[in-house]
Amino acid sequence: MHLLNGPREYYVSILFTALSPEINCDVCGKFEPVYGRIARSYQKSNPGKNAVFFLEADFSQNQKAYNALQMTQVPRVWLFPPSELVNYNVSSPHFPYKIGDKALSDPLDFANFISQTVSVNIVVQDEFDPYVFLQYFAGTFVFVLILKKKVLARLARGAIFRILSVVSICILTGGYMFTVIRGVPLIAKNDKGEIMHFSGGAHWQFGLETFIIAGMYLLFVVLMNILCIRLPSIDDPRVRNFGVIFASFAVFWLFNQLTKIYLVKDPGYPYGLTNYI
């Protein structure tokens, strides 16, 4: 405990523990990884800043210090402030940290204790465990492999799978997840009590907008499918040409309506072709 003697400009955190098998301190073994994780998180969050040092004092190697401090129970964490704050000796005042059930299950509890006492920021990040990663990777790989060969291979041959895929893509690109995450209303009314299908501003939207935009995207998919796949297979040139003209006009009209919607969201949109149709 000589580290606590003399002038210091930093805090010292000491974990008093007993990890030897003879003592069989189960709580000591559970809290020791938490203590080490917070110490590493402090170093990563505050590179080059020596505001606090983290130490461990095991009973088997520090029995004299335990006797001097009259330490009768472990584990314990004592945080000793800089010597300039108090007149220091080995039994000087300290900040105790209570190791309870929350300390064992939530590392942020100990991190908050250090942060609030020392006035430092500690970002606790999940540590990479290669064994857990390999377990999840192997399980996911096997699941995807079985899903691909046994399930998706059969579904991909049917039209239902393709239709569901297109509908899902249209809904997601239409902003459905935005409405779910933000919890926005499906529809709203203006000052006159009229239903508003589209909200003003490019950074906000109603839930109804997502379905309208998704429906328009879906129509785009259908029309492009007709233009690129269905119409070229028609033998009658008059029917084929009429279909091309009709589908092309429908694509143009649909894009025109989509642009009109964008003008509601952003009145400063510079292209005025929407005024003609």
UniProtKB/TrEMBL annotation:
<feature type="transmembrane region" description="Helical">
    <location>
        <begin position="204"/>
        <end position="227"/>
    </location>
</feature>
<comment type="similarity">
    <text>Belongs to the OST3/OST6 family.</text>
</comment>
<feature type="transmembrane region" description="Helical">
    <location>
        <begin position="239"/>
        <end position="255"/>
    </location>
</feature>
<feature type="transmembrane region" description="Helical">
    <location>
        <begin position="159"/>
        <end position="184"/>
    </location>
</feature>
<dbReference type="Pfam" id="PF04756">
    <property type="entry name" value="OST3_OST6"/>
</dbReference>
<dbReference type="GO" id="GO:0008250">
    <property type="term" value="C:oligosaccharyltransferase complex"/>
</dbReference>
<protein>
    <submittedName>
        <fullName>Dolichyl-diphosphooligosaccharide--protein glycosyltransferase subunit OST6</fullName>
    </submittedName>
</protein>
<keyword id="KW-1133">Transmembrane helix</keyword>
<keyword id="KW-0808">Transferase</keyword>
<dbReference type="InterPro" id="IPR036249">
    <property type="entry name" value="Thioredoxin-like_sf"/>
</dbReference>
<dbReference type="InterPro" id="IPR021149">
    <property type="entry name" value="OligosaccharylTrfase_OST3/OST6"/>
</dbReference>
<feature type="transmembrane region" description="Helical">
    <location>
        <begin position="130"/>
        <end position="147"/>
    </location>
</feature>
<keyword id="KW-0812">Transmembrane</keyword>
<keyword id="KW-0472">Membrane</keyword>
<dbReference type="GO" id="GO:0018279">
    <property type="term" value="P:protein N-linked glycosylation via asparagine"/>
</dbReference>
<dbReference type="GO" id="GO:0016740">
    <property type="term" value="F:transferase activity"/>
</dbReference>
